[in-house]
Amino acid sequence: MHELNKYSRQVTQNDTQPGAQAMLHAIGLTKNDLKKPQVGIVSAGWEGNPCNMHLNALALEVKASVCAADMVGLIYHTAGVSDAISMGSSGMRYSLPSRDLIADSVEMVGGAQWYDGIVAVVGCDKNIPGALMGMSRLNRPGILMYGGTIQPGYHNGHKLDITSAFEATGKKVAGEIDEAAFDDIVLHACPGQGACGGMYTANTMASAVEAMGMSLPFNSSYPAVSSYKHREAGAIGKAIRLLLERDIKPKDILTREAFENAIRLIIILGGSTNAVIHLIALAKTVRVPLTIHDFRRLGDSTPVLADLKPSGNYVMEDLFNVGGVPAVMKMMLREGLLHGDCLTVTGKTLRENLDGVPDLKAGQDIVRPIHMPLKPTSHLEILQGNLAEQGAVAKITGKEGEVFTGPAKIFNSEADANEAIFEGRVKPGNVVVIRYCGPKGGPGMPEMLKPTAALMGAGLGKDVALITDGRFSGATHGFVVGHVTPEAQDGGNIALLKDGDTISIDAVAKTLSVQLSDTELAARRELWQAPPLNAGQGILFKYAYSVTSASEGCVTDEKIER
Questions:
Q1: Are residues 351 and 340 in contact, defined by beta-carbon separation less than 8 angstroms?
Q2: In which band, very low, low, confident or very high, does the pLDDT at 410 lie, cut at 50, 70 and 90?
Q3: pLDDT value of position 562
Q4: Residues tagged active-site
Q5: What Å distances lie between residue 47 and 123, 160, 289, 342, CA to CA?
């Protein structure tokens, strides 16, 4: 067997590195400890967000299991941003850039300190792809551990989640609920620790990572408050040691087939549009070819089966109670929708991991059988046309219809759109356009849960469409199209629109277009000038100049000449 400390020994067993060894003795390591493999345990824990508030405690449990497996576990930390807290404000611009900052910090500490393996303990949605991107750049044995989903809240016997709080604003404005009911919903929507409960971006990405084989089985399904999460933390030590012994690395696991498994799973579960950006970015990290067209290709033969929020009725904890993500994948394997021979962090194939998994519970109605889908093809529609020449991503379940045509209502910021919605200036039939919110124009491509939730809460979900060069929260539902590329800041045709222009969204033909001639668009382009960047310094300024488009995953290292 090869040396398990093949990286850390560069500093711990090297006579020319006495300073490094002295520093390690200072933190309490013995001479015998320096012979052991070192595992970096990166925690995205911080107190300001329920998704992350319990992660530092889980990281300590992971460290104990690593040490019990005769290794040295060393905890370090990375950033976190609460999308739900920053949502609808200028703070939301920092959310997507945090993914790349997380990737950088995971890579930076793990590489600088010569750790032999990495365990990432993560919660909110950018933590997950960011940590996995950083681990994959290092390409040393690693496991991702998700902190788990939040429990649902309740109001008058009805289940609540974070979307309930946002939609309550629209309901209050529309007069459907009074101030007391509004306050009660906000108070009880999020009862404690764990990531947002529906099939929003955190649960979507955790499920995708499990499908790709980079987490232990059931990782994405265990609720944050369950005893199962503590058992999982206790199992990490042996699991990461096995990866070290067999020298199984992320790039051995994250193959083209693994990405296809992830895409099909998130379609079946009705997952978030953000998965498109994150999976493309991760694929670029491991040099696996993946584009928005792969989502279209796989989506044409993959149905939506799970009745999960935001457009459905159930939350992740409900899915766990009927068998969880492994039971869904077992059904997919049986139906020929999964590559079963992909390697995973257990050292076994996905098929082997699923062999002993029980089927979905009889009589459950959360996941439909394959012959009775909620939608026969993907809800994640990749649209193109003269408003999205390089693509856009729509989240259309079919409940809101599949074709929408109407006059444009133009807003150059989310704040202006929100004000108009709350004041009743958005009317049935309008296509709301929110622009200059892309990766460069934001900068940071903020999510748009606030306006979409307000429209849903006001009862306009089926009567108003919304398009943007920004993103949507995984909690968003309704007739919405995001990731419009080229974005307005780069002179995409979305920048040339005027109030009253007729916009057509067709999820059947997969088109997004404005009824203007090429001649008219060219004439408007002659008069258009890019506005100044909405950032003059700092991380958002740097991000605007380094980020690629949404269709390319919003990565920040592609513009550098190789």
A1: yes
A2: very high
A3: 40
A4: 473
A5: 12, 22, 38, 37
